[in-house]
Amino acid sequence: MVDIPVVVTLAGATPTPPATLLAELIASVSATNPGYTATLPGSLIEDISSTDVGALVLCDSGRVELLNSLTPFASNDFMLSQLGQIYIGPGAAPAPPTNTSVSVVFTGTVGFVIAVGFTVSDGTHQYIVQDGGVIGQGGTSDPLFCLASATGSWAVPANTVTILITSVPSGVSLSCTNPLTGVSGGTAETAAQYRARVMQAGQAVGTGIPTLLKTLLGNVSGVQQRLISVAQQTGGWTVICGGGDPYQVAYAIYAAGLNIAGLVGATLAVTNITVATNAQITTATNHNYAAGQAAQVTGVVGMASINGVSWTVETIIDEKNFTISLNTSSYAPYVSGGVLTPNLINQTPAIYDYPDTYVVPFVSPPAQAVTISITWQTTSANFVSAAAIAQAGAPAVAAYVNSVNGGQPMSVLEIQAAFLAAVENILDTSLFSSLVIAASINGVSTPATGELIIGDPWSYFSTDPGGSGISIVQG
Fold first, then answer.
1. Where does 268-341 sit in CATH, by number?
2. Which residues contact 78 (CB under 8 A, 6 or more apart)?
């Protein structure tokens, strides 16, 4: 028997060179046959050893493939399927496309039940209530998870889902809106993405609860993998999860065994409040408020008289500034501090595990609409179709934007790489003389910091997958 050595590098198990196999073969034969000479008779020995080495190469290749297939990143399709069943659970498979979803708040007659299947619309698409709810004592419902009736991916801006499709009884007052942007539908999980998910699931037990929680959240229908995060915060943990039924998400958090008492939501911090008839408040991150939103602030230093006072939002100036229905002309000037409530991105569904009820807070990140313009020039002496360049490049850049994990910045270098890779069959990349890339987030021009385009840390980037938000022109 030939003892073939196992060589494992960063790339995994590697095939043994034929010369090494030949040396091992001759050494093995010599050890069991005293007086054996590999050179006599020459032609016969060489013929036999070459044939044997060829067989050993096949055996060695099979062994290398088997060893490497034991990891999800290198496994063949059958082995990957088996690993998925073991790590993720029975029936595990690449996730199918997800429908666009949105959380809708209903306002109206106290006690009116919003049944499962109740349908609302933004004038273009219809959305169906998945869990049902009721108009509470305050005249509003909890945010109800609604799923688009048709497949596809599109943006759902805040406060656009305002049309009732399902009729209501006479004498009942009812209206609706979506305080936050919806979550655009996701594409089917690629093979590479599924391999990464299986790998993460396999690590869950060995690396602890956060990895296990990410695995469980990824199994919730409608949840997008790039919008899952388990972040350590002062005082506890913040779970971020985009898409999926909030109660299913809350149950996944509960089932992971994470200390629920240690869960904290996102904080909407104040950085300034003006002394004015209609005070203007500035926030550190996007406030996501709309005119008419009721809120209050606590923890302000200096302008302490404003703490705990209820008011409503009057005018939205931009994502971080708004005026309120409160006259602060007689208040002391703002010095520092302050936290606004409510923070609309925080979700607080309750899990009932008889006889106890557990409130499970997590963050549902809103989308930030991204548009990108790319202006290019070339040294090519031949005609280059600008339309062909735009047609090939726009979807590739959009795909990159829609792949950035929630809360993470976009990279100008990655945008450039995605564009060049998409158009290299049209124009040799060495012939581009310049590429100027500019981005806007929610309609506001956002210059890069170094090579990074930074958005709101509690949000995620989104653009039309077809590339309509990507402008590519020849300069």
1. 2.40.30.180
2. none
